[in-house]
Amino acid sequence: MELCSILQPECTTCATPGSKKKVLELISELVAAQYPPLSAQAVFESLVAREKMGSTGIGNGIAIPHGRLDNITQPIGVFIKCDEAIAFDAIDKQPVDLLFALLVPEDQCKQHLSTLAAMAEKLSDKHILKQLRKTQDAAELYQVITQ
Fold this sequence. Notes:
Blueprint: E1 7-15, H1 20-34, H2 40-53, E2 57-59, E3 62-63, E4 66-69, E5 76-86, E6 96-105, H3 109-122, H4 126-134, H5 138-146
Parallel strand pairs: 1-5, 3-6, 4-6
Antiparallel strand pairs: 2-3, 5-6
Helix pairs in contact: 1-2
């Protein structure tokens, strides 16, 4: 699956959320604004439920929060670059500054896992990480992550 089919420019942003809770709220608000049938609260609850099972902070300043929703038919992505890294309970205990959030339909587990794996692989590329961290705005961030 092409990343640009699940990640819209409107769901890509640079922000200073300040905390793990605030960044999950920001993700929820971005999704709800772009997909009106969804409520920010439902998205937030899905992300928090997954975080309670274990942090999605995968190390190297990266987190991949994700969740399932029963009222969507296509995966929805959100990409955030934090202006200041935030504590995220990552496996390496380091703060996070790049987050790719993925929300998938309840019945699409296999696609969900392959999309997460593809994003984790992309974000393990040091060249791409360097480019992402050098971006100055959301448009540039979207360009780099979808290239």
